[in-house]
Description:
Chain A is α+β, with helices and mostly antiparallel strands. Chain A contains 16 helices and 26 strands.
Amino acid sequence: MRQLSKSTKTVGLLMAVLLVLSACADNGGNKKEKTAAGNEASASPSASTQAPSATAVQGGDLTFALASSPDSLDPQRSNLAVASRVYSSIFDNLVARDTDNKIKPWLATEWTVSDDGLSYTFKLRQDVKFQDGTPFNAEAVKYTYDRILDPTTKATNSVPLIAPYQSSEIIDEYTIKLNLETASQAFLGNLSESPLAIVSPTAVKKYGEQFGKNPVGTGPFKFVNWEENAEIKVERNSDYRWGPDTVDNKEAPYLDSIVFKIIPEEATRIGSIQSKQVLAVESVPPQNIVSLQSDPAYQVLQVNTNGHPYSLLINQKKAPWNELKARQALQYGIDVGTIVKTLYLGTYEQAWSAITPGIFGYDTSLENSILPDQEKAGKLLDELGWVPGKDGIREKDGKKLTLHYVDSSPNRDKRNDIAVIIQQQLKKIGIQVNVELTQDVLTKVFKNDDFDIFGNSQVNSDPNLLYPFFHTAPEGALTNNIVHVSDPQVDQWLEQGVVERDEAKRAELYKNVQQYVKNNAVIIPVYVSRYSVVAAKSVQGLKFDHSGYPLFNDVSIHK
Amino acid sequence: MVGAVIGRMFTSLLVVAGSSVLVFVILYLLPGDPVNSLLDPTFATSEQIASLRHQLGVDQPLHVQLADYFGKLLHGDFGNSLLNSEPVLPRILSQFPATLALAAASAVVAVVIGVLLGVLSAIHRNKPIDVIARIVGLLGISMPAFWSGILLLLVFSIHLGWLPTMGSNGWKTLVLPSITLGLIGAGFLVRMIRNSMLEVVNEHFIVTLRSKGLSERSIMYRHALRNALIPAVTMIGMLVGEMLAGAVVIETVFARQGIGRIIADAIMAKDLPVVQGVIFFSAIIYVSVNLIVDISYSFIDPRVRRAT
């Protein structure tokens, strides 16, 4: 019997150790990102992209580990960023956006815009053909864009991107005129977004619903096969010689093939590059970036995600947050800098405005313009008559000062942890934060308006993204303006921003909006997320496009 | 006998149908809109959302969706994925061999380790081997597979470099996943066999055998083990359920193909027809295996046959 109790003790001790260990273990879940139109994907190549290699080596196969499985490789129907990272190598667009937000030729060589801004006429390259031999021409462009508007296509996020496109007129085989419903300065740039890539009409007709599993475009790589939950393989398109200005190698790529391995579990993904089973891995968490950065065998490539940075949106329909001073108290009471440093270990930048630095018209003067100041925050609340009660939480007319913080579940990008830190920070200035996690943000936040503060981000490439967030929305409609800002001056700036063709004036308009958002404490910007790739040192020439998707044209593998 | 088998088959059918309806209703009641994962609410207009909901049929009331789904199911149509319109059944069938390979390999691991340690620990009760066996049993049951899997990966793939971290091609990719999953089954089996061995050993017929002068080895392996294994056979049916559930985690951790991966992805994307399809498919397998186990039970143990 004594022996028995001894073994029980041993087992107990072991279990305790294991429990502690497992608590420390990684929480790698299935984080899903969304594309261009969705959350988290676009980026500016301004970050640490690689310098082109002096001498590229011909041949070689790149293995690239993805964090999740693409839904479809049909640019118009897919809605996941991970799919764009794969299909961008198979497809080309009419135009390309460079680092400085300039729109460059790609499949279109030149274009003109009508005076009223309602039609764009493109001259197309004449030496391009699709990977299935179909010639690329005005017909293919018309087919692609009309396909997006056709409801039977079930196009998802490409639909809002192509707005306000109405119709196409084929002028001749290599000239096409696109007609818009209303003028839009964002339109041309949007044509560079991967969901608006040109597809082969023959292949779409041939494969129908299955085009997403048999993609055919004009891009530098040809689709080979897709083994579900295992890998997607693409190979060199040897006919390719129409690369855009955003890459150095305009000809066929150096690589023979790329194999995208689908490895959802974080630890396994990182382990696969450490054990040399793949040459590059995406979506590397901050703690691994920090450790791999110091390892000479690897290089860490990062690119900012462009659009609306992750920000806390304050609902101005809910008292007391309808009052400027109350919102300013949040602005001063929340120490964003500390949050970003603590959770992302320097791998993400703090956000300062309603748009990310890579977006046209970004107002740099907003950086460091508001610094945490708890005393000031407390004073602002005092002025509103909210005085600390016995438990430290402020009260007014017998009502406690609470903040209903809604965040989405599962915990993406440690956003739920942000809520927890803010809960502690605001407690210090006497605000009780009630955090609610929901899987159904659409109903809770967008339909029922049941929140005081809600965190959100959006991927985009044009400052016009501010329009749906801050332009007066029609009463009762499902809208992005969940903060309920309604100011004729802001409306006017945003309306003019859509059509203003003078770049300096357009930038000024958007700077006004950004200033307004800060001065009125409409939102609290938190972080600009980054897409990160860790690659073996032998992989050279890997770059990212403006949306943050990898460009494989210049990649070569050195022994 | 035949009547009993037919009766069992009928109840099995009811279980499959019942579980599918239940799952359908639960999925329907869960918060969240599948359209959410297709269209970003911060980007799409309400008209777009409404029209997509209509196209997908998710705007219909529960009973209409339910009738529609089961009507098609009777014709062998598992429906199409909401995400990419792909038919569900071919997808499941194409991925199932990988899950089957994993389950089979894990079952071998579970049975070999489980039976061996179970018997040894009962024979050498309270000796070191018994302690080890019980620790293995406890760990197998209580260690979460995602954790033990990653631990094995760290040691055998990353540090030692002996085995691949991921994939489902070749026997090498099967080793770590099947050990991870097999250990869970082994944990159950060790405890079960140990207990039933100890029970059998105390029965009168063992005393009779001893008094007849049979060797201890012969008593244990020829008489006691055979009787102790009977309840373990029932365990195999339950283990299949364990394997199917474990596959969801294991296939994700080791980036293997399989129906576990399909359902994990589908749950994240709220792709209800796919979730429903995999659950229905798994239910059929689980129920069929248990049916076979139940029937075979009466062949293994004559007492059961006489009773029915």
